[in-house]
Amino acid sequence: MKLYGKAWTRRELEARVGRVEQIGGVRRLQAAEGFEQGLQTVQVRTGGGLEYFVNPSRGLDISLCQFGGTPVSWQAPQGDVGPAFYSAHGTDWLRTACGGMLMTCGMRNAGVPCEDQGDTLGLHGRAHHTPARQVSAQGCWDGDEYVMQVSGQIEEARFFGEYLKLYRVIESRLGGHDIRIKDSVENCGFEPSPLMLLYHFNFGFPLLSEHAELDIKAQKTEPRDERAAESAHDRWEAPTAGFTEQCYYHSGFERDADGFAKASVMNSAFPVAGGITALKASVCWKPEQLDWLVQWTVCGQGMHVLGIEPANCRVNGRAGARAAGDLKYIAPGERQEFETVLRFEKKD
Known about the structure:
6% of the residues lie in helices and 48% in strands. It is mainly beta. It has one domain (2-347): Beta-galactosidase, Chain A, domain 5 (Distorted Sandwich), CATH 2.70.98.
C-alpha cells in the first residue's frame, strides 16, 4: 500500500503500530440527542487524509466528509435527522434530508413530487430515509492492502405493489483517497417496476470558494429553466441573498480506460492542516448505467452548495419521465448494477 509518501507491506506497518486503527479504520457510533438521537453512524478513516461518516439509519448514505481535516461536503441546517421524522408528503423531504456527501434519491421516484398512475410520490423518493438491513462494517487485510467496507440492504416494498432491494457496498483502502460505491438493485416482485436513481453528491465550503472551478466534459448541456439559462453552469459565486437554485442536465461524456465518466470540482487554494493545497474532487460513474448528470447549483446564503448528481433520469419526477417517454424499468427478478466513485487528488 501507499501511505505517507512511501510503499509499505502489511508486516512493516504492523511493526510500527499497536493496531491498524491507530492509522485508519472503521468505527461504529450512535448519536445521543436531538433529532439525531439513536442515529447509527460508521466512521471511516483512510489514514490518507480522507474521513467520512456512513449512516446505516439513512440508506447507507454519506454524511460529513473531510479531506486533510477540512470539510468538503455541505451539511443541511437540520443535521442528520433520524428516519422516524421522515414524511413522504410533497416536499417534506426537505425538512429531514441531511445533505452530506451523498443522498440517494429513488428508488420509485427522483425529482419533484407528483401523481403517477395512482401513486402519490414525494420529492426524491424514500431511499435517503430508509434504514438499512444486514449492515456490516469491517476492515480486513487483503495481502498488503487494508480494505474498509460498509455494506447492507435498503428495501422499498408494500402490499399489492413494488418490492425492490438495493444492495450497497462502500469501500475505501488504507492510505487511499477514494470512496467506491457499488450498488445492485433487484426487483424481488413479480411485476415490472419503474426504477429511478439519482446520486446526490453535495459539495460545500471551503472547497467551494472564489478559487473553485467546475470541469464537466459533456457533449451537451441543457439548462432546466430560464433562470439557469441566464448563467454559466461552470461559474461559482459568493453567497448571494435571494439566490434561486439553478439546475442543468449534462449528457454525452468522455470516458477513461475503465469506462468511467468524470465531473470535477477543483480548488487551487484548499485549506488543510498546516497550509494550503490544490485539491480536485471528482465524481466518476458509468454512463451506460447512469446516462444523465444533473448539476444543482445554489449560491445562496446558508444554501451554498453544488450538487453533482449522476442519474438514470432527470428531476421532473416519475410522471414527467413517463410523459417524456424516458422512464426506466426493472423487470421481475432482474438485477441492475450501478457503480460510482468519489475521488480526491491533491498537489502540494
